[in-house]
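Structure ticket #2291
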Amino acid sequence: MKYEKVKEALKKISGTKMLVLGDVMLDEYIWGDVKRISPEAPVQVVEVNNENQRPGGAGNSAMNLVSLGCDVYLAGVVGDDKEGDILINLLKKSGINVKGLFIDKDRPTTQKTRVIAESQQVVRIDKEKRSYISAEKEKKLINYIADIIAHVDGILISDYLKGCLTSFLLKEVIKKANDRSLPVVVDPKGKDFTRYENVWLITPNREETEIASGIQIEKDDSIVKAGEFLLKTTKAKAVLITLGSKGMALVEPKKDPIFIPTKAKEVYDVSGAGDTVAAVVSASLASGSSFYDAASLANIAAGVVVGKIGTASPKKDEIIKMAYNDLKKEKRKFLDNSELFLLIKDLKSQGKKIVFTDGCFDILHAGHIELLKAGKQSGDILIVGIEIDESIANKKGKGRPFINLDQRIAIVSAIDYVDYVISFKREKLVDIIKLIKPDFIIKGSDSKDDLPISDEELSFLGGKYKFVDIIGDLSISMIAEKIRGNEREE
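Resolution: structure written out below.
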């Protein structure tokens, strides 16, 4: 997903109203150091130096949505206990609407306690009750959702099989959402995926996919086969299978599957990564994105959170930063203005000398190559501006350019001397030069009377002109005229 598209997608998500329904938990983290083995048993002794709590499960999904700028309503149950109070307070402090969280005196608040030492999880302790909620609590949740559904843009269902999501509750919620054409995304669990029939998207991981489909995932074809099975089982519009270090696979009916490679550099902790994927995908769909764009954005966000320890939410600037780092690693030369601006800023901070040249580059000839070679020799980074078709037609007349913009970009990008390519309208060229602030602008010596910006203005920007004597009598117009002459002779 291109950098600019990432920014646009995040902007669209901000302010989206989301309902999260599911198994809410309290994640507790005990941090310490291991320096010895217990004399009582062959186990490590963890010397505690810090403890904290965070919302987990559906609560973590809600936290992820808040970090994306969404307005979030959370529905589920908590116990009548200290852990439930802590969880509700944490959610409230984050700006999450918790009016849909109901107290259930018959069950404890689900709690997962993780002991972590030297950045490694030593043990996890679970406190929970997995039986389904009572009919009374089920009815309360259905009534709450019936009231709130008119005020949301999308629904995320987070199922951990802890008892909140009865089959009847799921059926009612999905029906109400479909009646309003609201996207419903499910982060599923268990073997019976018929519970999620008629949702928009499900986001199982590899293990969940294998359990629900009965298909062992080994190669790409088995991933596709499992995805198609789940599509048929759930009647969903799409299945997004998360594959850990291998990224994701998007499977849609009557379309070729799409494999999206992971963006993670290092993986410290995968807990909560599924919550992040489901959250980002659901918010993206609710704001109008396609399944592919939603999955691509979720893939970037997941790459952020697995680099953190514990359940975590990706911040928008972290997602943007990862997208920018991807841009720097790409071999793609053609950039838009915002991508170019970021790269220039980064390159200049490294002390790189930036060289710029511009032109039509219509029918490439030896003079162009001389110019580009001289440009590359004058600095570290050569940026080439290529004039768009409309501007050339206005300047050169009907029939020009001979080669359209996309083809001219492809040809110039293939030249080794060129580092980056940008397109421009003639009237916007000065703005691009001011954006780039090049150390040098390279022009042919025959162009001294047709400069895009004055010496004084360029000097003010910190740059200079360099002029190249082009050997031979070469110009596109002359070449074109010669071709026409030969055609007339024939």
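Closing remark: The first strand starts at residue 17 and ends at 22.
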